[in-house]
Design goal:
Elements (H helix, E strand, L loop, with lengths): L1 E8 L2 H16 L3 E5 L4 H7 L5 H7 L4 E6 L9 H13 L4 E7 L17 E7 L3 E10 L7 E7 L2 H16 L5 E6 L5 H15 L6 E6 H10 L6 E4 L1 H14 L7 E5 L7 E5 L16 H13 L3 H16 L9 H16 L1
Parallel strand pairs: 1-2, 1-3, 3-12, 5-10, 8-9, 8-10
Antiparallel strand pairs: 4-5, 4-11, 6-7, 11-12
Bound molecules: nicotinamide-adenine-dinucleotide, 3-isopropylmalic acid and manganese (II) ion.
The site of nicotinamide-adenine-dinucleotide has 20 residues, from helix 1 and helix 4.
Pfam family, one: Iso_dh
EC number: 1.1.1.85
Protein name: 3-isopropylmalate dehydrogenase
Length: 346
Amino acid sequence: MTRIAVIGGDGIGQEVTAEARKVLAVALPNLEANEYDLGASRYHATGEVLPESVQAELDQHDAILLGAVGDPTVPPGVLERGLLLKLRFDFDQYVNLRPSKLLPGAETPLADVKAGEIDLVVVREGTEGLYAGAGGVLHKGTSAEIATEESLNTRYGTERVVRDAFERAKRRDRKHVTCVHKTNVLSYAGGLWRRTFDEVATEYPDVTTDYQHIDAAAMFMVNRPQHFDVVVTDNLFGDILTDIAAAVTGGIGLAASGNVNPDHAHPSMFEPVHGSAPDIAGQGIADPIAAILSTSLLLDHIGQGEAATAVSQAVTAELSGRTPGEPLSTAAVGDRVAARVAEILG
Ligand code: NAD
Ligand code: IPM
Ligand code: MN
């Protein structure tokens, strides 16, 4: 039996995860889903973010479904670093997979781009870079304060994620990988990334490549997103670039992601790209599609391809039926997509 751990988390994380669970229950009825109450309320009640015993239990699942963590009542970083980044690091989820596809019915701010013309996947490094937590502060709170935040990059970590990007490109129609970094300024880390990319590329003669600096890539993501097929980049550049990719393909409410451990040594974790959205939490208006599409990535990862396809087809049907600007209720979207999944799977 497939065992999934579910962490709704904070704000709209809870709301969208409830809808994703509805859809999962229909897509894979024979599924054990175990809820974990982690996030701001647990932190306030007990001071705990992620007890060791809970982490050990999470490790016993086939995958994790996460809503979002982060709340205005908790100092920034406590939940994000203590839960989300800790799991990404400890479960060695080094491939942060972020597909962006312009589906029919999704609203794009770009003129002259039609559905189907944007179909890219960002392979964001998930365990290193500026997220490593290396650095420190001197003279804190004084006018002499000095803060450093170091980007940690290893050949091992870079090579494995770059290779993953090439493997994905090999299986896609266009077979193209763009490496994104900032080699003109970040000579040490950029040099490692660029050399590793060029060396791995020689093993994939059927895959075409190019390189872009992150600033230019951010621009091209807006004015030429059709260019991209697979993008491989470091942790922070990938974080930023995928919010832009989301914005041009229907908005952050549609963007799904997977924190993948390709070796299956630990569970992978699937979550929307968006956060807990305190500005709209509790109103029942968050779009649950990103969370629902994350379950499609989850199903695919655990070898349930038919169920995964049913979920993504149901979402495509849901979006095609949408009227731009029409108010949407989180629960109604979940109900409609779940019903469509049931129909597709017969
Ligand atoms: P956010 O993604 O939560 O919100 C940005 C904007 O997008 C807001 O206006 C929000 O209302 C809107 N939005 C987000 N998801 C939406 C949805 N499903 N439907 C409709 N609108 C949606 O980013 P933020 O405001 O920068 O961060 C809020 C909190 O979430 C912070 O504490 C942050 O650290 C955390 N965060 C967590 C995760 C995660 O757990 N994976 C990811 C990003 C941010
Ligand atoms: C994301 C989020 C996280 C990140 C934060 C909340 C730590 O922005 O998943 O994109 O920066 O990776
Ligand atoms: Mn982000």
